[in-house]
Every structure is written in structure tokens, then in C-alpha cells.
Amino acid sequence: MNGKGVAILGSTGSIGRQTLEVIAASQDRFRVVALAAARNVEALAEQARRFRPTLVAVLDESLAPELKGRLEGTDIRVSAGEAGLLEAATLGEAAVVVGAVSGIAGLRPVLAAIRSGKRLALANKEPLVAAGGIVMSAARQAGAEIIPVDSEHSALFQCLLGHQREHVRRIILTASGGALRELSPEELSRVTPQQALAHPTWRMGPKVTVDSATLMNKGLEVIEAHWLFGVPVERIEVILHHQSIVHSLVEFTDGATIAQLSQPDMRLPIQYALSYPERLPARWGALELAQTGELTFCAIDVDRYPCLRLAYDAARRGGTAPAALNAADEVAVEAFLAGRIGFMDIPRIIETVLSRYTPEPADALERVISADADARAIAHSLVG
User: How far is CA 23 from CA 73, 274, 322, in A?
Assistant: First the structure.
């Protein structure tokens, strides 16, 4: 079979589904060789029947019999549990592994893909936020490529091509401000999950969409950018840009600033991560500046977005503090979406968790996973 083999970890989520759209539009260049998901076996089986991978894996082992039943009559191999995700991440036919499994469950498979020398198209934040030093060290040792899928980090990757890191003065991440950017502080205290999920420009999963509204997503992206590009946290800034056209910028020591602009469509950075260094023809709409109109930028009111401050604080503390931050955020956002806490309780819970948690060096995977578990336990006790 022709085409670059692609394994998708997290194929039933937002990024996974859009990756399959990209592959379907370029079947002469890419082919699906493995699909993996946490527990949505109905969607996973439907994807497998359409794209006919060699392997499908479901993280929840109890669902493996159902998945096998749904794929009866095919020659698709079914695997399950963490071992299944690891098998998908290291499959010999896969040249590229798309890391889009949410939560800490995606950490070991991502590391396995890197250590196997695969190109990692990285979409989930947890590996770099929780274990950035471990991940980047593994990539250097294996000679593996990490191509970011996040629109902001894809933009930075493109802006930095051909430039030396010592010439970088600062990195600037843009933030849309999310679905609640026009609300007053008083109105924020009464926000419903439905309001927080109504993002004005991006099509994303619920957790990321809420993180966009709290700006925690930008805080996590600051930590990611630090590890991916070797730039100190103090030289990574965030500005508000409501139009989501300029995806990030790099300012150099000579005063020049380079930006990457495109339509706010995740299929663009996904396609670039799969095809790099080649650029495929535009399939998802080109940018027409005359129709775009004005592009605006403004400073962020940190008091309005306490989650961004908490992320910077965790980054400066270092060690396993970012892992604890990420875990606390996941628990708080899940509780908010379930209607158990209010929107402004999210930063309160995260801050309390970080005040009670003592970071350790993030020099071993077991320590990172332990930090994640400890922070979750504290957060769950606060949520009630």
C-alpha cells in the first residue's frame, strides 16, 4: 500500500476525527495503520471499518469483546488496555504517530512512540506539561521528531524554522479569550457549562474549550513552548487576539517579529504535522486578508484570568508542579461540566491544590504519575 503510515492515539476525539478528515482528503499520501481510543467503541469501530487499519486498540479492557464483535468479519486486529495503546504507538508500519489521547493516559504511549523513533505529531498537552524534560530527553536520544499540532505551537515551529534560538528575544502566544471574554466578573460567577462551551472560533473538545475560557489552555501552552523550543518561561508572553487569525509570533533580538497567520481550522496544523517539511495544497480555505478585516491585540487582565497566573507560578516552581496543576485542572473542569461546581471555583480549586502540594524533581516517569495521582486526590476532596 502507498502512503505514509499514520497511527492515531485518541482517534474518536476532536483532533483524532479531524486527522481522519485530513487523511481522507489525501489518501494518496497517508494511510491509517492504527487507531486507538479510550472507550468510544462505537465510533472506533466505525472508523476502523472505513479506514481499515492493521490494529485498533481500546484503553478500557472491558470493552475489547464489544469492539471485536463490531469488527467481526474483518482482518483488523484488536488490542486493549495500556498495552494496546503502546502497541499502536510502536507499530512498525507507522511512520507518524498522532498523540491526541487526553489525560495522563497518553504519556506512556507518547514516550513509546518517541523511543521507537517515530515522528510524533503531538496534540495532547499532558506529555510536555507534566513531563517535558523526560519527553524532550527521550526525543534527543532517539533522534525522533516532535511536530506540534496545537495551532499556537505549530505557528511557533514555523516561525522559528531557519532561526537560531539565541536570536529569539521572546515568544508571543495569542489567545482568543474563549467563549466568555465579553462577560463581567459578576457574570462569570453565574456561567453555565453551555455558555463556556460556545467558543466563538474554534471547534474543540469540551475540556479544551473550558480551558480556553479560563485561559488555562494558554498557561499550559506556555509550559509546552518552554520545553518544545527551549525558551525560558520569563520570555514567553500571552496576548489577547479575538480573531484567531494570528496564531503566534516570535520576536527576535534585532527587533523583527515573525507571525504565522491562517484560518482558525485545526486541520491546517494537523496536515502540516503529517506532511512536514512538505506543504500540501490548501484544502481547508485560504486566508483572504481583505475580507478578514482588522486584527486586534490587547494585553491580558491577569486578575480576570487567575488560571493563567497559576500556570506561570507552577512553571516557575518546576519539578512536578506543572503535573499537579494539570491534574487539578482536569478534575475541576470535569466537576464544572457536571454542574457540581461554579466556573470561578475552577481556579480556586487549582490554587488550593497547588498550595497543599509539595513538588518533587520530575526526573522519573513514576514521580510524574504519582504527582498526577496525588493532585487528583486533593482536587477530588475539594470538589466533594
Answer: 24, 9, 33
- Alpha-carbon distance of 271 to 149, in angstroms, equals 9
Assess whether 296 and 337 both reside in one domain: yes
Please name the residues in contact with 325: beta carbons below 8 A apart, sequence gap of 6 or more: 129, 219, 310, 311, 314, 350, 353, 354, 375
- Chain length of the chain: 384
What is the span of the domain harbouring residue 121? 4-148
Same domain, 212 and 360: yes
User: Using one digit for the tens of pLDDT, what is the confidence trace for 242-256?
Assistant: 999 999 999 999 999
pTM, two decimal places:
0.94
User: Which amino acid is it at 335?
Assistant: A
pLDDT digits (tens, 9 = 90+) for 85-110: 999 999 999 999 999 998 888 999 99
| Domain at 337, CATH number | 1.10.1740.10
Q: Are 202 and 233 found together in one domain?
A: yes
Phi-psi region of 125 (alpha: psi -120 to 50; beta: other; left: phi over 0): alpha
Question: Do 182 and 93 belong together in one domain?
Answer: no
Give the residue ranges of DSSP H helices in the chain.
14-25, 41-51, 64-70, 81-90, 107-115, 126-142, 151-160, 185-188, 193-196, 206-214, 216-229, 267-275, 289-292, 306-317, 321-337, 345-356, 365-383
